TrEMBL record, chain A:
InterPro entries: AAA+_ATPase, ABC_transporter-like_ATP-bd, ABC_transporter-like_CS, MacB-like_ATP-bd, P-loop_NTPase. It comes from Ruminococcus turbiniformis. It holds the Pfam family ABC_tran. This is ABC transporter ATP-binding protein. Transmembrane segments: none annotated.
TrEMBL record, chain B:
The keyword Secreted does not apply. Keywords: Cell membrane, Membrane, Transmembrane, Transmembrane helix. It is found in: Cell membrane. Belongs to the ABC-4 integral membrane protein family. It comes from Ruminococcus turbiniformis. InterPro entries: ABC3_permease_C (IPR003838), Macrolide_Exporter_MacB (IPR050250). It is a multi-pass membrane protein. Pfam families: FtsX. Residues 263-375, 721-834 form the ABC3 transporter permease C-terminal domain. The chain crosses the membrane at residues 26-50, 254-275, 314-334, 354-374, 438-458, 717-734, 769-792, 812-832. PANTHER family: ABC TRANSPORTER PERMEASE YTRF, MEMBRANE COMPONENT OF TRANSPORTER-RELATED. This is FtsX-like permease family protein.
Automatic annotation (TrEMBL), chain C:
Residues 60-98 form a coiled coil. It is found in: Membrane. The keyword S-adenosyl-L-methionine does not apply. It comes from Ruminococcus turbiniformis. PANTHER family: PHOSPHATE REGULON SENSOR PROTEIN PHOR. This is histidine kinase. Keywords: Coiled coil, Kinase, Phosphoprotein, Transferase, Two-component regulatory system. It is an enzyme of class 2 (transferase). One of its GO terms (molecular function) is kinase activity. InterPro entries: BphY/WalK/GraS-like (IPR050351), HATPase_C_sf (IPR036890), HATPase_dom (IPR003594), His_kinase_dom (IPR005467), HisK_dim/P_dom (IPR003661), HisK_dim/P_sf (IPR036097), Sig_transdc_His_kin-like_C (IPR004358).
Amino acid sequence: MKNQIVKTEGLKKYYRLGENTVKALDGVDFTVKEREFVAIIGRSGSGKSTLLHMIGGLDTPTAGEVYVDGRKLSGMNREQLAVFRRRKVGFIFQNYNLVPDLNVYDNVVLPVELDGKRVDRKYVGEILELLQLETKLEALPGMLSGGQQQRVAIARAVAAKPGIILADEPTGNLDTASGHDVMGLLKVAAKQFQQTVILITHDRDIAQMADRIVHIEDGRIVKAGDFHAGK
Amino acid sequence: MLANNNRGIIRRMAKSALKNNRGRNLIVFLAILLSAFMLFSIFTVGITYFKMNRIQNIRLNGGEYDAVMYGITEEQREKCESDSEIKTTGTVAVSGYIESTGNDSTVDASCIWADETYWNEIMAPARDWVKGKYPSAENEVMMTEEGLQAAGLEGLGIGDTFTAGYRDGEGSLITKEFTISGLWDGYGVKSALYVSEAFYEASGYDISEVRCGRYYLDFDRWIMTADEQNAFTESLNLGKQQALYFTGNMGYSLPVFLGLGGLIFVTCLCAYLLIYNIMYLSVAGNVRYYGLLQTVGMTGTQIRALLGRQMTLVGGAGITAGILLGSAVSFVLLPSVIRALGIRTGTAGAVEVTFQPAVILLTVLFVAFTVYVGSRKPVKLAVSVSPVEAAGYRPVYGGNPGGRTKAKAAKRHRRGRRGSVVFRMALDQIRKDKKKSAVIMVSMAAGLSVFLCMSTILESQAARTIVTNHMNTDLVISNDTLKKEDPAEHKDLITEDFLSELTGISGVETVYPMIYGQITVPWEPDFAEMWMKEFYAMWMDIPYENEREEYQQYPENFGSVIVGISREELPYLQEVTDMEIDTDAFLSGETCVIYRNGLDLTSEDVVGKNVTCAEYGHSENQRTFQIAGMTNEGYYIGPVLGFPPTVIVCATAVEEFVSDYSVFQAGVKYTREYDEETENEILSLIQSSPDARDFSWESKLESLREVERAQGSMPQIGAGIALILALIGILNYVNTVTGNIQSRQMELAVLESIGMTDRQRNRMLVTEGMIFAAGSLFITGTVGVAVTYAVYQSMNYMLVPFEVPAGPVVGMTVFIIAVCAAVPLLAGAKMIRKGSVVERIRGMSGA
Amino acid sequence: MDWTVIIAVCALAAAAVQTWRMRKLKKDVYEFTNSLERNMDAVILGEKPEPAGETEDSLLGRVNEKLDRTAHVLERKEQEIRENKEEMKELISDISHQTKTPIANQKIYLEILKSRSLPEEERKFVEKLEHQADRLDFLFKSMVKMSRLETGVIQIRKENSDLMDAVGRAVSAVVPAAEKKKLRLSVEADGRYVLPHDRKWTEEAVYNLLDNSVKYTESGGSIVIRLKKGEIFTEIHVEDTGKGIAVERQAQIFTRFYREPEVHDKEGVGIGLYLTRKIAWLQGGYVEVRSEEGKGADFCIFLPNG
């Protein structure tokens, strides 16, 4: 049995919105095993983004615990969370969120350099080759197509060997074809570099590409299709 | 724990951020450059001014000191020496007057003994060179070459001797052979002979006497307000004849210092506001960017380092450029500024612009501090950005996500039902970020206020500082012959005919002639006795007792004058008199006013007493006036000031009383102030008189021209300063508006898509600009005017009513309105060129 | 000279020395960290750490020596694992080899038995027996392939060639079975699809998909093989009109020995799709299935273009 790299226990997140309390997450118990590719699917407002933010240490829960790689997130301060993200989590966003001033190569190695670590050029080269970006190293994000930008984002997420990649609607801004390409590359890259991927999406087709699909609705997991995907 | 060494990436990111935000950084760079330039110039002007001022004062005074006291008692000396605020004290004793030497029988030179501290410390900076040594033997003297020449001793050198006759403290004339022990040159009393202490001791003078002792004080501080000066004088318990004079230095330094300090403050404020605003906008507009950096794992410390590094680079470049520019400009402009501030090149030598490391250090320090303070808040904001913002799907504008905006929007909606849509939207825009709007208004207002202040001060310089003529008349004409001692030379120049011609000139409104007659005041035990006693105590070295008898017997040896003024002038006399004058009694010649002549007499002492006058040379013709009050107005002295009181009565009384009276002076008031034409007519009238040379006049118009000359290029420089500050404020505005329009690009595109025309959009943008203009003008009109008023009054020596010049105000208003209208229009037009509506709506989703 | 000046100068000098030492220490620490990191990366990658300062009496030397030993231990363990795998492989190939002859003999005897006239009942048993023997044969063959792929003994050799070659061969291999079931087979492709791939294994992967489709498609159905070149991947679709796969089982079908619950009676050992996925992965691609129960299935292999 593989390690559980992500585990949440009774995770709750309530927002106050005027006079109402919005329950973005209402008691979520959820585990992800190492090297698993999990899709969380749900309608917008279902709480799937919130769950992802919690796992990434971007947001703090109202109640409950998040463990990532055996570490409890609730005890960490902002500074520690930043370092945690830098070393353990790679993010991929719908709007790519690349640093506009940095070229492709610098964007990809940014998390590594932020940690003051030596850049493993061979490894980064492999990633870039896999993602077919080797000809775009000097380009600025603004000069790239959406699909290319998202591939840079994947490369960035993988480059720091984070162990877990959180993808928030990575294909949301892309047309079907390049969305599919991006997902395929994400899958291939995760496989190649042995990473765990948690993906949120509202698109069933995209979710189909995962090893496992988790449905979330009104802040609760309604159907966890855990198929014990063999390997 | 050991910190991670991950600075390399920060350096690289800072560099690329600088490269990619050229516009923003250029503005920050310019702001820092301008403020560094301003501060550098202010510091250089300040330091050079104070240095030159010191040199000028040293040279004018012949030594480095802040105050001099005439006569010094042991008690006072102890007090001053134990005063920790006084750096140095030096004593000088006048020990006799040389009256003749072997070669010259009419020498007038004093013998002065200077003690060691005076000679070595206080006087040293004023000397250029010294040869030989300070006298120690009784017959040794130290002189200058000019002094030797004046005494007819040119060509003598050290070791040579000469014979001179001098009068000692007892008044006896002594002839003595002196040896020159040394020579010196420099600034100060060059005719004097510096003598030894032994000479002083034998001279019969004592330093406690006002005629002998000069006690020089050099304070530690270099600024002392008038109040502090008075308090110090008070604390010394001066004797009646004793006096303490402060050099102009200490009093005048303060306003200059405060003025420069104020400018430094406003400059820093403007720069601060701009840097703060730009940085804040840049951070607020990039919330996602900073959130993103945090999701990627950048810590707060690293973000701080990133922004800090950018500011250090831009700031360093700006400061360097500013200092370089300042250095260059200082060479050109500084001399004229320094002269305008009142340094005369004649005395202080050519203006030397000195670059001191302290100036550079201070500039760097101030600007760096401003930059630091200005960027502290924005950096904090960048660090506090929640990484979730970066994860949001839509870019967030403004800093308040969630329900607050909605609630606010609803509230706004309810509130704003009236007015045109365009105006409401413009107002909403400004209200959306009140802090930002306020910052811009304040920063523009700061520039405007300085401009307002400068132009008001400069415009009113003449009015405030001209020592105006009596009763503020435009011209005072005097008959100079009446000042001559020999009555034979007296001529009646300002005759009836002359006066009527004068009045006939069309531009002349009123003529106030002042007539005078010579009188004596015979002794009587009451008022005359009291007056003379006081007079001797105050002004004379000899006791009154010695001369009372002469006065009683020969009052004609103690002449004085009676002054007659016209009926029209009475209200003014009343103004300068401390008691209420009964008009009828005065006009009928029953009462008089006495010129105080600086005596220690109060009105209570004299009012009600009678003063008896006798016509000079006709002592039988006597007349008695009751004293109605005393005045300090020096105008009423008349041509000569006698020992007995100067009596001021109404003109008719003089005409009745004295047979030989004449007009001494006439004040002329023009219909229009500073009327050049009228003045020229009067002057040509005077010139036409055969005795034209015996007239003298004081013209207000000439004084005005004098002031204008003295100001030199000050107005241009003042405008320059205001312009730089205004420029910083406008940079701030430009930056905000362009940034604002850029971040509203989508919103504007949406408005366009639902049918807002270009005209309407421009109207909205211009309305916004107008609100900014109105806001900053409002602040200028309130706070700016208040500050200007305070500054004005602190320099308002002549108590001229406060008035803001209309021209500059109108110019300023038009200028600011034009800028506020033009900038958003240009920014809007630039935006349009970026692409179609759809492109702009969509364009926002990208990176 | 004034005492205070002397003290100040001394203090300044001391501060300078201290600052210099701090800087040096910092530099040393950074160097130490960098060197350590480099060597640990090497160990992770199974390379030999660079022996910086191993013979020096320094902290780095101490740590590097330890790292070297760690690397040795890891290498030994890997060696053991490799050996174990090798043994396993040999075992499997031995099993397959050793079972080959018995199965072949069995089949021969069954053939002989079938040629005799047997009563209807016996004949049925013999036929069943023969079927089971075929399955056994297939199973062993597949297991050998699998073990070779799994243990990495067989290397994927990517070469630039037209994908149509591999696809064509795979299609021709299933033609007999398809004809037997009366299935329509068609290939939709235009142009050449030159991309780096391993011809033999790609053929195997496509064949497995086709084999699978033939198995699960009722007679009279059709199978379409479609090639499509995308921006990044070239897709090989195998679309059938079979019974389809329920959404919740779609992720599972690619796992080893998985068989659709209701088709246990059919031939197959649940290994083909697993192999296909493995082959795609090893070539930097992936597989995907799109299907709805009762509406056929669309299996697709994605192979990277570059």
